[in-house]
Design a protein that fits this description.
By secondary structure, the protein is an alpha+beta fold. 35% of the residues lie in helices and 15% in strands. The chain folds into two domains: 143 residues, 2-Layer Sandwich (Alpha-Beta Plaits); 44 residues, no CATH class. It is globular, with a radius of gyration of 19 Å.
Length: 210
């Protein structure tokens, strides 16, 4: 079967739903228990959910659902380049606020600040492209998780395969997302090893826009 570049599969200028997969390397864990060391990694599921909830409130990408396996993650994502200019401006402010509250969170923008973002049409078009980009969301998810896991494991180097590379499939209807365990029950943590059980953790959908 021929391999295709992601840009040939994911058209980020149109609304579409994509099934994305990102895999770990060097026996790294996203969840479950390492039978060799006895360490449990289920707390990393909370890292992933918390980060996805944060990104879903900023990016113009709906997180329809996700499933965490011991060494890889599946996501069902819908990019939304069709959001209004006002919504794009507000989300860009949340990502790059000009003012912050005392606790470091983005301050609520005023009408003049939103108007300033709307006035620069070229910059607004670039903000829309970036915020509706699944590639940008996947990078924003992968890098913080990798750095946090490496600190916890006292290692350096890659955590995700090829530093956050991920595969995408727009034919998502062939993937029974509501029953991921039945589709992934053959998953093993490393080549030639069945020491780790094919644990699966699936989250319910986040609230999305119609």
């Amino acid at each position: 079967m021929p391999a295709y570049a992601r840009r040939q599969i994911v058209d980020e200028t149109e609304v579409g739903i994509d099934h994305c997969v990102s895999r770990c390397v060097r026996r790294a864990f996203l969840c479950g228990q390492d039978a060799l060391t006895g360490r449990n990694f289920d707390h990393r599921k909370d890292w992933i959910q918390s980060r996805l909830e944060e990104l879903a409130g900023i990016f113009a990408v709906d997180v329809l659902g996700f499933s965490v396996i011991t060494n890889h993650i599946h996501l069902l994502l819908r990019n939304r380049p069709d959001l209004s200019d006002e919504e794009i401006a507000l989300r860009w402010w949340r990502l790059h606020p000009s003012r912050r509250n005392e606790d470091g969170s983005p301050a609520e923008p005023g009408p003049q600040e939103i108007a300033g973002l709307l006035a620069d049409t070229n910059a607004l078009a670039e903000h829309r492209r970036r915020l509706s980009s699944i590639s940008w969301l996947m990078r924003s998810l992968s890098e913080p998780i990798a750095r946090r896991a490496n600190r916890e494991d006292h290692v350096t180097g890659r955590f995700w395969n090829h530093w956050g590379t991920w595969r995408a499939c727009r034919d998502w209807r062939n993937w029974a997302f509501e029953r991921p365990a039945s589709r992934m029950s053959g998953s093993k943590h490393s080549r030639g090893s069945n020491r780790c059980k094919p644990l699966t953790w699936t989250d319910a959908r986040f609230p999305t826009r119609a």
